[in-house]
Structure formats: C-alpha cells, structure tokens
Design goal:
Rossmann fold, globular, alpha/beta, 493 residues, 4 domains
Length: 493
C-alpha cells in the first residue's frame, strides 16, 4: 500500500510544475507548487510538507545553497533535486549537500513516483551530514547521455561507502577515471590511490607486487619491499585487468578479502589491511569462470557493486562535449584553440569508435597539433577516420562479416574454442556455458532496443516478464533506463 503525503514542488518552469502536480495528485498526494526558492523556504520553515522536489537552479536562489539550511532545520525532510545541467559534479554536489535523490532532466515520471514512494515510506532516521566543499573542482567524467546519468547517480550513492566495486567495460571507456573519481570524491580521498595493472606484470611477480616480499624471499630479493596493499593503506587499491590475474594470486587475494589481512612473500606475520578495493576488467569474467580461469568465489567478493561503462558507440550524443573537453585540455598545453564543424561532428557520431573515448581523445589531440585551421571540417574528419573502422559499416565482431549468419559465427567460435585446448577437451558443461554466453547479449540487446522497458523486452523475446527478470538477475545484465515520460515524450525543463 502506497504512502500518501504532502509534497512541496519548486521549479520555475510552469510545464514541469503542471506535470508534477498532476502526476503526484493522481496517486493521492497533496501537492503545493511554487516558482521560487523563497516561497519554498517559507513553507519548509512553517513545518509544511513531508517531502520536497526542487530544481537546482531557481530564479532567486540555488537549491544547493538552500538545502543545508533545510537539513539543519528539518533533518528528516527528504529532498529530491532535479537539474538540467546533468554533469557528474551535479550528482556529486547533490549527494554532498544531503539530497535524498538526484534526477537529471529530462526525467522519467514513473521513476520519480517510485522514489517519492520510497522516501515517504522510509523510517525517519539520522540523515547523512552534508560535507564541506573539500572536493576537487575538476570534472573527471564527461557526458550528459542517459547512460552516463545512470553512472553519475550510482557513483554519487557510493561515495560515502567502502563497498567493493567491479567496473566492466571495453578498453578505452575510462575505467580508471571512474576508479579515481570514486577515490577522490569519497571518504578515503585523503589516503593514497594506488593502481596496479595485472596484465602488465609478469605472472611470477604479481604476488610480490601485491603483497610485498621479505629480504631473501626469492632470488634477487636483496631487501624488503612493500606491496601495493601496504602502499594503499587507508586509501583505495585499483586492480585493473583483474581477469588477467593468475589463479594462485586469485587465491591469495580472496583470502585477503575474507580475512582482512595478508602476509608478504617469504613472511610469516599477518598484516592487517584497510583498503577499499576497486577492480576493473574488459573481459567476461563469467565466461572465464566457466573455463576454469577465474575463481567464482572471488568474483562474488569483487562484484559487490557492478558498474558497466558503456562503449562510446552507445553514447554518441556525448561526443560534442568530449571533443570540446579534449580541445580545451590541448589548449591548456599551449596548442591553438580549435573546433569541429557540424558536418565533422556528424561523421564522428556515425563512426563505431572501437578504441572508445581513448581513441577519440587521441584523434582530437592529433587534430589540435597537426592542423593549422581553427575549424576542422567534415572532409578532414572523414580523412582521419578512413582506414580505421568503416563509418558506413560499424565493426560487429572480431573479423566477422556483418551479414554472417549467427549459426555460422557460433560454429567458428566453437572451432576456435576447441582448438585452444589442443588435443584435450574443454571442461564439462559446455552446453550450458555456450547458452549462457548467447543469452547475455540477447537479453541486453532486447533491453537496449526497448530502452529498458522490461514488459516490451519480454514480449520481444517471447518470455514471461518474471522469467526475464530472473534472467536479468542471474546473468547480471545492466538494465538500460531511458529518461522518458510515460507518454513517450521526454520530460524536460
């Protein structure tokens, strides 16, 4: 049974006020609306309202400046903030000043009603205290697409926790940037951030790199050396390319995560550790588990909060913002100010970007350094991208023609899979492993095509909705949520 309440709405956009008034009233809430912060503050000061919904930018005052006063006067009053700015820093700022939730504009009405219901139903407790502006002012993540908004909001929720995070995504999507943001904007920001790339370290040295070694522990160990766990004490340890960690090191890492202590290579005394773990991979760890190459128990220890970074081709609307950012960075380094014309941006948004944001950054830096003109034209962009991946025919797989039948592609995959074992056979359970690997992209593609609408995705797949929900949980599929009004139109302001 839903909980009804008195809702105070503040937004200087009359259309937004009308939409919220109608939607909230329809489900039984008593709603009062205003177009300015002064009236909202007067209502709050008088003890009115069980919940506040406010835009960040008001004609007379910024909601972020007013929210600490609201928290001090009425600490149990939940405040939902909305913003059309839609940047990573907006989400972080909302979390810092104690907002119950942050919603980017355009927002999804159904999602907002769900948040309102949860906020009103929650028992009143001690609120999170807003923090002073001790954070870096730079913005580490760029993009205003719906996919990035979901990431910003999840990151904002995790800033005041020490939960272990598993970041997945293709190479070049910015996994280390996200890990650094978790550290620099979190409560361990005064501690060290230590990164280690498992793929860049010889297998026989990984344990020594992680845990350190004692003098004489092995040939060449002429003195004691601290490991990354010791170096990251009190801070964050970023384990990049975790899928490349050898099995013996996985066993030791699991023991550390379970017991909170480790021993150096050649050492006997356990050492207590206090670090936050953030792991990242561009590999399918579930497939590695099925192949016996990654420990399932370690996967669940690391995958406490899964965070998938979308490839650039899934958020091409962010390309103009990213281009401006990278040109601005190049200008700081002494290069000439430049921009790309509309036609050039159009070409870039048709390209598949196999190297993701890293490839885009390299292209922008090359344009800034090599071309004398202030405006980079469509012809230049087409010339630069020609010969990489076809603009008209985006890459669909590793050397597979776009029109190859699915059965033939699977057959070629299985042939390579069997060859990888030489004269031996793959581990038992091949049927279920292959079915699981096909199911994941199938469910993900259906959800992406229906913009996260599980009812439509279930119909598309020919599945019962409960069956689809079960598969989403079992497969660990990240549900894409589009910011749409239930009518199909975006809600913006």
């Amino acid at each position: 049974m839903s909980v009804q309440g008195s809702i105070l709405v503040a937004d200087d956009d009359a259309a937004i006020r009308t939409v919220l008034n109608q939607a909230l009233s329809r489900v039984g809430h008593h709603v009062r609306v205003t177009s300015n912060a002064a009236t909202l503050w007067r209502w709050v000061s008088a003890g009115e309202g069980d919940l506040v919904i406010t835009d960040v930018v008001m004609p007379d005052e910024n909601a972020f400046d007013m929210l600490p006063r609201i928290r001090k006067l009425r600490p149990d009053l939940p405040v939902i903030v909305m913003s059309a700015q839609n940047t990573f820093m907006t989400a972080i700022r909302a979390s810092e000043v104690g907002a119950y939730e942050y919603l980017p504009k355009p927002f999804d009405l159904t999602e907002l009603l769900g948040i309102v219901g949860r906020a009103l139903a929650e028992p009143k407790g001690k609120p999170a205290q807003p923090r002073a502006s001790e954070q870096p002012e730079s913005m580490p993540l760029i993009g205003r697409s719906p996919a990035m908004q979901d990431i910003y909001r999840m990151l904002a929720r995790m800033m005041q926790t020490d939960l272990t995070v598993m970041i997945t995504g293709e190479s070049g999507t910015g996994k280390e940037l996200v890990a650094r943001a978790l550290h620099e904007f979190g409560r361990r920001r005064n501690g060290p951030f230590v990164a280690i790339n498992m793929a860049a370290i010889p297998r026989d040295l990984i344990e020594s790199e992680l845990f350190g070694h004692e003098k004489g522990a092995f040939t060449g160990a002429q003195h004691r050396s601290s490991g990354r766990f010791e170096q990251a004490e009190g801070g964050t340890l970023f384990l990049d390319e975790i899928g490349d960690m050898p099995m013996e090191a996985q066993t030791r890492l699991l023991r550390v995560l379970q017991q909170g202590e480790y021993t150096t290579v050649g050492g006997r005394t356990p050492i207590k550790t206090d670090v936050r773990i953030v792991a990242a991979t561009n590999k399918d760890l579930r497939a590695l588990i099925n192949q016996g190459l990654f420990r399932e128990d370690l996967f669940y220890r690391l995958n406490v909060v899964p965070l998938r970074l979308p490839p650039l081709r899934e958020r091409v609307e962010d390309i103009p913002d990213l281009v401006r950012h990278f040109f601005a960075e190049a200008e700081k380094e002494g290069l000439q100010s430049k921009r790309i014309d509309k036609g050039g941006l159009g070409v870039m948004m048709q390209y598949s970007w196999p190297g993701n944001v890293r490839e885009l950054e390299n292209l922008v830096r090359r344009l800034a350094a090599l071309y004398p003109q202030d405006v980079i034209t469509e012809e230049i962009i087409a010339s630069e991208l020609r010969g990489a991946t076809s603009i008209e025919t985006p890459r669909t797989g590793e050397g597979l023609p776009e029109d190859m039948p699915l059965g033939q592609a699977v057959e070629q995959y299985l042939q390579r899979h069997f060859r990888s074992f030489g004269t031996a056979l793959p581990p038992p359970g091949l049927y279920h492993r292959i079915i699981a690997e096909v199911e994941y992209p199938l469910v993900l593609a259906a959800l992406a095509a229906t913009q996260g609408n599980q009812i439509r995705a279930a119909e598309l797949l020919g599945l019962n909705r409960n069956t689809l929900r079960k598969k989403i949980r079992e497969l660990g599929v990240d549900v894409y949520r589009a910011s749409k009004h239930p009518s199909g139109e975006p809600v913006s302001g």
